[in-house]
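Incident review: delayed structure delivery

Summary: a single-chain prediction request sat in the queue longer than the usual turnaround. Root cause was a stuck worker, restarted by the on-call engineer. No data loss occurred. The affected request and its eventual output are reproduced below so the record is complete for anyone auditing the incident later.

Affected input:
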Amino acid sequence: MYLPKPFEAFSADHPELIKLYQELGQACREAGPLDAKSQELVKLGIAIGANSRGGVMSAARKALAAGATTDEITHAVILAMTTTGFPKMIAAQGWVSEVFKKID
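Output delivered after worker restart:
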């Protein structure tokens, strides 16, 4: 799995913090009834709202791995238009397209 260089560097410098962070993430995933695909689509929407290129691309990759189709991911991006605004949605569509190109 792709990991950004700053994340890798932080992980090397602070392994205990990363371990705790990952445990928190796992606990959050297990705290409710959503399946993995739904969780990743929700996280995609959150990343779009935060205008996070890395978050959008990561969520798109993870959503694909969890069984989401490119059409489902694209629909999730389109849904962000009326909540986060057209510019953020268009930026996210570009980032998601980059992920899709790598799987073709």
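Verification: The chain has a mean pLDDT of 95.
Action items: add queue-age alerting; document worker restart procedure.
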